[in-house]
Amino acid sequence: MKKVLLSMLLIGAATYANAQKSEVSKAKNAWTLAKFANNQTLEATLKSLGEGLKATDNAIANEKSKDMVEAWSYRALFASRISFVDSLNVPNAEANGKIAEEAITKAKALDAKGSEKENISEAEQTLSNALKNRAIFAYNKKDFKSALQFFNEVTAKNPKDTSTYVNAGVTAKQIGDYPELVKNFKKAIDLGSKDAESLYSEAISVSFANIKDTVGGSALLESAIAKYPENPYFTGMQTDLYIKQGNIAKSQESLNKLIAKDGKNASYQYAMGDTYYKQALDLQGKRNKIDPKKKKEFDDVTAKMKGLIDQALPYYKKAYELDPKMISALENLKVIYAFKDDKVNYEATKKLLDAQNAADKK
């Protein structure tokens, strides 16, 4: 009787183990159906995916099948897909996202032969897309704080996702988190974003204006100029920075090299004119504070202003000659001629400027 009973127990155990393995087969079949099911309602889709996930619950709960790599890879597939499909239900999406992450980790540990590599990769991509969906939905609802959190989760899992770094930076700007904007834009630039030039502009601007980080902003500016030497915004900003630092020589040294390399670049000519003109404007501010009774001091400052303006003049003229659409050069020339009381050139410049403004309005 004992021998018969023992045989019966062994048969029962084998049958139970096979039953658990059949749960993996059931999950595989359910996944095949889910992948090719079209035009289902959200409720029907979630029900189908939930049943597949339940099959993997049963498989990993049994001692005999808990270490089957398929049990975990398909669990990752089902949970990640639920997280993606049900993105608007954030608690459910996050809960299934955690299930998927755990399953992916376990599947990778068990998949010594790489037999489930494709399924694991698909689950990872689906999970990433689920997070992106959540971020976009949150952004559209103007829940920018949550959107930024989700975008950052995506880049933490996929540190080479260039577009998501850009999205994170744009979202950070919405809540005034400028250090976060700079961090994400810099990462996108480093990864070779096609929008690197505009990302540099934004990051440099907020570094100086909002974060007040002169060191970081200057480093970004140097990098931007090295990559985009013909960008007038960058060269102009560097000129402004050098002038504010009182380092006119450094600014002019840099611009002279650029002009020597490309003398027909209107932006370089204009920027060089600025190195003189902005010094003159600075002196004008100081002159306005001089006591009118101090005529000699007033006249000395005026003479220096005139000297600087005379040096700026040919560069602005050259800039306009090279680029007749450079309105800023005309505007500065008009002011200079007014200061010099040069009525002929003032009227001629005003006429050109008025004609250009009228053409722009058409």
Structural account:
The protein has about 350 residues and is an all-alpha fold. It folds into three domains: about 110 residues, Methane Monooxygenase Hydroxylase, Chain G, domain 1, CATH 1.20.58; about 90 residues, Alpha Horseshoe (Serine Threonine Protein Phosphatase 5, Tetratricopeptide repeat), CATH 1.25.40.10; about 130 residues, Serine Threonine Protein Phosphatase 5, Tetratricopeptide repeat. The protein is about 80% helix and about 0% strand. It is built from 16 helices and no strands. α11 runs antiparallel to α12. The longest helix is centred in the N-terminal third of the chain and has 35 residues. The chain is elongated. The N terminus is likely disordered. This is Tetratricopeptide (TPR) repeat protein.
List keywords for this structure.
mainly alpha; Methane Monooxygenase Hydroxylase, Chain G, domain 1; Serine Threonine Protein Phosphatase 5, Tetratricopeptide repeat; 16 helices; 81% helix; TPR-like_helical_dom_sf; TPR_rpt; Tetratricopeptide (TPR) repeat protein; TPR repeat
